[in-house]
Amino acid sequence: MSKLMVTDQSLIKSLKKEEKAAFITILCMLSAIDGTIRDEEVEYIEELAAQINTDVKQSYFTYPAELGVCKAALIKNRRLALELLKNMFALAYTDNIFTDSEGHFICEISDALNIEPQKVSEISSWIIDRIIWLEQAALIFEETPATNGGIND
């Protein structure tokens, strides 16, 4: 399991079917937005989909960005919207390459969710701090990719 994935299990279990589909679809679209879908990104999405008991359809990776904004409109619960943004940032950083296109798409989705730019910045900083914390832990505990798999198991 990706060490960046930290989900609120009670929130995740309360998702409606259309919210689950929107959540996973938006993450799939994010992984493809830079033109390259990396294995780490697909693994992250599949793990999350398994946690929320939904499917990942291959077509989700090919949807246009505009559809993501429409899908985001299905998410009415602010806490769920924040959870989506947290997962979007975690996904964007799983491959250690955060692109301008990923940042732009996250901003479009956060606008559609009515999340203030300051809150988006806080979520991004929290994910970056978590990455640094995990990297420090690997150094302190002398973990190597062979013993730990790095940030992404």
Q: Topology, please?
A:
Elements: H1 9-13, H2 17-32, H3 39-51, H4 65-72, H5 78-93, H6 100-112, H7 117-140
Helix pairs in contact: 2-3, 2-4, 2-5, 4-6, 5-6, 5-7
Keywords:
single chain; mainly alpha; 7 helices; 62% helix; 0% strand
Question: What does the model show?
Answer:
The chain is mainly alpha-helical. Helices cover 62% and strands 0% of the residues. It has helices spanning 9-13, 17-32, 39-51, 65-72, 78-93, 100-112, 117-140. Helix 4 (65-72) runs parallel beside helix 6 (100-112). Mean pLDDT is 89; it is low at 149-153.
**Mean pLDDT, as a whole number?**
89
From the helix content, strand content and strand pairing, which structural class follows? mainly alpha
Task: Report the end-to-end length measured between terminal Cα atoms.
Answer: 6 Å
Strand content: under 5%
Order of helices and strands: HHHHHHH
**Poorly predicted tracts of residues:** 149-153
Q: Identify the overall geometry.
A: globular
Short structural description:
The chain is mostly helical and 153 residues long. Helices cover 62% and strands 0% of the residues.
